[in-house]
Design a protein that fits this description.
This protein is mainly alpha-helical and 163 residues long. It has one domain. It contains eight helices and no strands.
Length: 163
Amino acid sequence: MKEKFIKTELDIHTHLDRIEKIYNHIQNVQENCYKLAKELIKDNQDKLARKLLQRGLRHDQSKFTDLEYFGMYSDDECLKWASIENHRRNNEHHLEYHMTPLDMSEVDIAEMACDLKARSSEFGTDIKEYVKEYVTSRDISLNSKFYKSIIKYLNYLLEDKFN
């Protein structure tokens, strides 16, 4: 029944472009997870490192479902919103999956940090500004434990670290 509401007919170039964008994002996140996992192992956090590697291998697989694959790029704003909300509510590295940031596990936050770094790079934005905007736009304090955890993981990945 979904097919009646979601336009699923695309030309080959659109399919190829979309798959490349999704695939490249997933690869970027996986690379960040791998780099972070190596740093966590050096810091005697091997269990978290292994969990993060598992998460990286599963990262954003829902983007290949019909709702997300077609909906996120739809001209229909309601469908686009529904597909984005579906994605956020079905992937543990998104705040919206949880009741509050306090409900997020360390691996959720570590994967989120890897995702934020990838998104920032893909958008060509400064990671520090991108993360601050991400957090404050969700009414979360820059003094919160949540923000400090994201920064902790990002600092493992960045040469130019957060202060």
